[in-house]
Structure formats: structure tokens, C-alpha cells
């Protein structure tokens, strides 16, 4: 075999030269691409790859200074691995910014990759997810191997042409310094680049900030304005009432203000406001700024309920391992409410239920649903609410209910979406089989931004309709409903510069309930206005407790 290759080379010298030059050019392009790859989805433009990277100049100088091939190999191999790691981090940054509106945290975010895989499985199916996972792993291995081989080849090329390479490196260094000093640009992008160093600096800062934040937040979580309040002094103005805290997945401000989404959502909110008023209910609505964006719903839930800013997984783990008082646990602490969790999105153990003060938890497997899944959502919101009515709200109890309800039908990819059916026809959920089969295919919706917006708006309208129809049908004089979004949808739907604001509403029949929050200056009805006050989500707990008569007694001071 070796002899045949040599014979072919001897017989085709021009082709050999062309192949060698092509391979060298590809190796250089691969290395330069790794060094110049931006870390944002909207910054990957051709001009970004026409820059002069400082790291390439420094790397060439180092390889030229090494005495022999063994030394060059010892440096080139880890350099290629480092370039592979750099590329991986930049790709992760792009993905996280596209879906969560923030960069990748190398300390905290690895476990979210498993959540992403679970979401992909629910959306695209097990076989497609397995194929995609294998493909990604293979692609990364090939990327690392190619970068190592490319670095080795370029190192040997520099050594063979040491004199020319040395002069070229000096010229490149001079050009880089000149471009950097004069601020020269091409298509609005600086010609002098140091993307590799910038990525390393950014990740180092994130790691340092994460480690510093861990200790500081643990101390913050140990302090609580209502932590030592006696049970009798907690929410006395809500005694005897059923209080329901309901999260609507991805229900963000864009649903009410984006021109492609808002018409359907706002018309639904106005229609449901009118229907509730006819049934004797009234509402006040405002805005809260969520601690998360695009996903990681549990961060929004815990921020709202704990009164602490929970914007990363480390903070979530810290607070849920503490005895900090949550809004829902307040009702458990009084001993005067039966506390319940309706969490159809939970499909595995959920030890955090103790932190949230939930004595009775109904997850995806305890709500009696036998119908089809709707992508990630295990069941339609209408069914989950009817199950709550059947299992808890419609039964006689010796105490009023406090329930945390998490509705999931508006979770991405917003395809297929359930539609409303008769409340008496829900049964065990099998009525949704035909509806799910006739719904949109996620593969057609996900790549299309306008289509995603359209379907997202429909899903929010469905969730709001389900919840308010349930209230209209089953709510009573003593029912108090607090419902809100947990975060904005992903940037592809909400927009690159969207806020983190979400709507929040309080609905009740008894006028006294809304009179308690008259000084909040919230808008009447289910639709907050553009000039309605915006609060950080972590401030709601204390405002709510104070409004309904709770007396502060700090703990942990």
C-alpha cells in the first residue's frame, strides 16, 4: 500500500502539490476560525473571520522558537485541544444566548445540558434525540482531532520555512499593533482581534463572580424579614380563603406588546376580563421583572415565592436547601390551610416541595392523565386544572386550600397546541388524541421565527383561557387567584432586546381583596398597561405579605 502511494505521488507531482497546499489552507482556516469565532448568535458575520488574531501571531512565534520537532509536538497538541475547548465554549455561549439570553457558565450550567436533551426528546422524539446526541459527540471529537492535527501541520510548516515564517510573524505582529492602535476596522469590525483571550477573560470573570456569589448569597438567604413572624401574624386578611398561585409558562411582556403576537393575546385577555366581570370577579394587573429569561422556569418560580433573586442554579440549590420562608410555605406555617402543588411538568423526584411548603403534590403521574403529550407538556392545562378540581378543590376539607399550580401548555416549542373542549368531556384526557394528531409539527415551527411567534401567542391565549374559564366555572366568593408568567419566551420569539418583564394579576370576587392592594397602582383587568409600575420579581413576596396583614419579624440578623 505504501509503495502504491509513493508511486502515485511520483506520477502526479502537481496533484500532490495542490493537495498539500489545499490541506495547509484548510488547516490554517480551521485554526483561524477557532480563534475568531464570535460567541453571540447575531455576531457570526463574514467580517468577523477577516480579522487578524493576536493569538495566532503569538502561537507562531512560540512554535518558531522551539528547538525541535518533539518540542513542537509537545506544544502543538495541547494547543489544538485548547482551541477545541475554546470553540466549544463559544458554541455553548451562542446556544445559551439564543435560548436563555445569557452566556454559558462553566461552573453551573453543565447540568442544564441534560435538561436540553430531555426537552429535545420530548419535542423531536427519542430516536432523533439519540441521533442528534451521537452526532454532536462525534462532531466534537472530530473537531478536537482536526484542530490538533492542524496545529501540528502548521507547526511543521513554520519549521520548514523558518526564515520566511519569522519575517511573516514579525510583519503580522507589526500590522496587528498598528491596526489596534489606530482602531482600523472592516465592515464595522476591528481588524486587530484577541477573541481567544477575550473568551478566556470572560469565562474567568464568570467563575470568580460565581464563587464570590456563593458565600454572599448563602448569607443573604439566611436573613428573612418574616422569618420569625408568629403563625397568627401571617396573612390574617386571607384567612378562610382559597389562595391559588399559578404560573403560566413563558407568559412574558412580549405576548402583550409584540405586534405579531399581541393582537390575539390582548383580545383574549380583554374577553376573559369581561367574562370574569359578568361572573362577579375583578382583577388588578402589573409587571414583574423575572430573574430568568427564555427558560429555567424554576428560577422564576423560586424568585417569586422566596423574595430572593434566584438567577442561577447555584442560588437555587442554596435557597432550596435552607429554611427560608416562601410565600407558599407561609400558608403551611399558619396551620390554617391545606397546601397543595399541581405540577404536571414534574416527571421525577421533586424534593424541593418541602422547601415550598407543599404537603400534597400531584406530579405528571398523579393527575390521572391518559391522553397524549403535547411535545414537552405532559398534559393540556385545561385537564390539569380539571384534575385539581376533581382531586382537591371540589372536595370537602376542614381547611381552605393554598395551591401552587404550574401550567405547561405554553412551553416551547408551541407545537402542537391543545384546544379547549367541553369541561364535562375531559374524562381521562384521551379526548385530546385527535387534537394532538391534528396539531402543528414542532419541526415545522421551531426553525421559523414568525411561525413560532404565531403559535406562542396561541398557546398563551389557550393557557389564559383555560385558567380563567376554570375560575369562572369553579371559583367562589372566597377564591383568590394570583397568576403570572415565569419568564419571557426565548429571544427568537421575544426579540433580541426584549425586557425580562412578565404580567401578574390578582383576581377575586370579594372587593376587599383588591382594596388591600389599591396603593400598588396596578391596572384594572387582566391586562397591565404600558405605564403600569414594574417591580423586580423578588419584591413581590414582602409586598403581598404586608398588604394582607402580615407583621415583619426578621430572622437571621
From TrEMBL:
SUPFAM superfamilies linked to this entry: Alkaline phosphatase-like (SSF53649)
**Keywords in alphabetical order:** Membrane, Transmembrane, Transmembrane helix
Q: Which residues cross the membrane?
A: 21-37, 49-66, 73-92, 127-152
InterPro entries (alphabetical): Alkaline_phosphatase_core_sf
Q: Does the keyword Transmembrane helix apply?
A: yes
Does Transmembrane helix count among this protein's keywords?
Answer: yes
Superkingdom, according to UniProt? Bacteria
What is the protein name given in its UniProt record? Answer: CDP-alcohol phosphatidyltransferase
Species, as recorded:
Streptomyces broussonetiae
Q: What is the lineage of its organism?
A: Bacteria, Bacillati, Actinomycetota, Actinomycetes, Kitasatosporales
Amino acid at each position: 500500500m505504501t509503495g502504491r502511494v509513493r508511486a502515485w505521488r511520483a506520477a502526479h507531482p502537481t496533484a500532490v502539490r495542490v493537495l498539500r497546499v489545499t490541506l495547509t489552507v484548510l488547516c490554517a482556516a480551521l485554526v483561524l476560525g477557532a480563534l475568531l469565532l464570535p460567541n453571540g448568535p447575531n455576531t457570526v458575520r463574514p467580517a468577523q473571520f477577516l480579522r487578524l488574531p493576536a493569538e495566532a501571531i503569538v502561537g507562531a512565534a512560540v512554535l518558531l522558537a522551539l528547538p525541535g520537532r518533539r518540542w513542537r509536538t509537545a506544544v502543538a497538541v495541547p494547543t489544538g485541544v485548547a482551541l477545541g475547548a475554546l470553540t466549544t465554549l463559544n458554541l455553548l455561549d451562542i446556544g445559551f444566548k439564543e435560548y436563555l439570553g445569557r452566556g454559558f457558565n462553566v461552573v453551573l450550567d453543565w447540568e442544564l445540558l441534560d435538561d436540553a436533551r430531555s426537552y429535545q426528546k420530548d419535542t423531536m422524539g427519542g430516536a432523533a434525540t439519540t441521533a442528534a446526541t451521537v452526532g454532536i459527540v462525534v462532531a466534537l471529537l472530530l473537531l478536537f482531532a482536526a484542530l490538533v492535527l492542524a496545529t501540528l501541520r502548521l507547526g511543521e510548516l513554520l519549521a520548514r520555512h523558518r526564515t520566511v515564517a519569522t519575517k511573516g510573524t514579525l510583519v503580522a505582529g507589526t500590522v496587528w499593533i498598528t491596526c489596534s492602535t489606530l482602531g482600523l476596522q472592516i465592515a464595522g469590525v476591528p481588524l486587530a482581534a484577541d477573541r481567544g483571550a477575550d473568551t478566556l477573560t470572560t469565562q474567568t470573570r464568570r467563575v470568580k463572580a460565581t464563587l464570590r456569589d456563593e458565600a454572599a448569597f448563602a448569607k443573604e438567604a439566611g436573613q428573612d424579614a418574616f422569618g420569625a413572624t408568629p403563625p397568627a401574624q401571617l396573612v390574617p386578611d386571607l384567612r378562610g380563603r382559597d389562595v391559588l398561585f399559578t404560573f403560566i409558562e413563558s407568559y412574558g411582556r412580549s405576548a402583550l406588546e409584540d405586534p405579531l403576537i399581541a393582537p390575539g393575546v390582548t383580545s383574549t385577555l380583554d374577553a376573559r376580563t369581561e367574562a370574569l366581570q359578568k361572573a362577579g370577579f375583578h382583577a388588578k394587573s402589573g409587571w414583574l421583572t423575572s430573574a430568568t429569561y427564555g427558560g429555567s422556569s424554576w428560577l422564576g418560580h423560586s424568585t417569586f415565592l422566596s423574595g430572593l433573586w434566584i438567577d442561577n442554579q447555584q442560588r437555587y440549590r442554596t435557597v432550596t436547601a435552607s429554611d427560608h420562608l416562601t410565600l407558599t410555605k407561609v400558608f403551611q406555617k399558619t396551620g390554617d390551610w391545606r397546601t397543595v402543588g399541581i405540577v404536571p411538568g414534574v416527571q421525577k423526584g421533586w424534593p424541593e416541595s418541602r422547601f415550598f411548603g407543599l404537603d400534597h403534590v400531584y406530579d405528571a403521574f398523579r393527575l390521572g392523565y391518559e391522553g397524549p403529550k403535547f411535545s414537552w407538556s405532559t398534559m393540556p392545562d385545561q385537564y390539569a386544572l380539571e384534575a385539581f378540581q376533581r382531586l382537591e378543590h371540589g372536595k370537602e376539607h376542614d381547611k381552605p386550600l393554598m395551591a401552587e399550580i404550574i401550567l405547561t401548555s405554553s412551553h416551547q416549542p408551541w407545537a402542537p397546541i391543545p384546544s379547549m373542549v367541553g369541561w364535562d368531556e375531559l374524562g381521562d384526557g384521551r379526548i385530546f388524541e385527535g387534537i394532538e394528531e391534528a396539531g402543528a409539527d414542532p419541526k415545522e415551527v421551531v426553525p421559523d421565527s414568525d411561525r413560532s411567534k404565531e403559535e406562542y401567542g396561541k398557546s398563551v391565549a389557550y393557557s389564559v383561557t383555560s385558567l380563567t374559564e376554570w375560575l369562572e366555572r369553579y371559583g367562589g366568593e372566597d377564591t383568590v387567584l394570583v397568576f403570572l408568567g415565569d419568564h419571557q419566551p426565548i429571544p427568537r420569539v421575544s426579540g433580541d432586546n426584549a425586557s425580562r418583564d412578565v404580567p401578574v394579576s390578582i383576581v377575586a370576587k370579594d372587593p376587599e381583596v383588591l382594596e388591600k392592594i389599591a396603593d400598588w397602582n396596578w391596572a384594572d383587568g387582566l391586562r397591565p398597561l404600558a405605564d403600569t409600575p414594574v417591580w423586580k420579581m423578588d419584591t413581590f413576596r414582602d409586598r403581598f405579605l404586608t398588604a394582607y396583614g402580615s407583621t415583619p419579624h426578621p430572622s437571621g440578623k
